[in-house]
Amino acid sequence: MLISADKLVEEFYSLNKEKYPNLSQDKIEKICKLPFYFIKNNMEDNSFPLIHIKYLGKFLVYSGKVKAYIKGFNKKFKDGNISKENYDIQTKPLRDYLINNNEEIPETDN
Description:
Elements: H1 5-16, H2 25-44, E1 51-53, E2 57-59, H3 63-78, H4 84-100
Antiparallel strand pairs: 1-2
Helix pairs in contact: 1-2, 3-4
């Protein structure tokens, strides 16, 4: 059974509002979502760092997955499904990641 994040926050708030009277449901929601915003923002800066959040886990990029994405973009570009400009924009951070980690970059037919 899937439960939405909003429903979980609502349930947590209703069970704990007496314990935390100074916190509104909106504040509880922000507290719960903050680690995920942090992960998202760090991943979007294209440096793909290892992110460790206590009690939640470690989030990292696997080079094999990066290579698979590049191969997928290579195929889309070869088949004419994306432009050269879009191809370059999408693959640059992935290629940079592989270069920075001394990994081999998949070949392309460009």
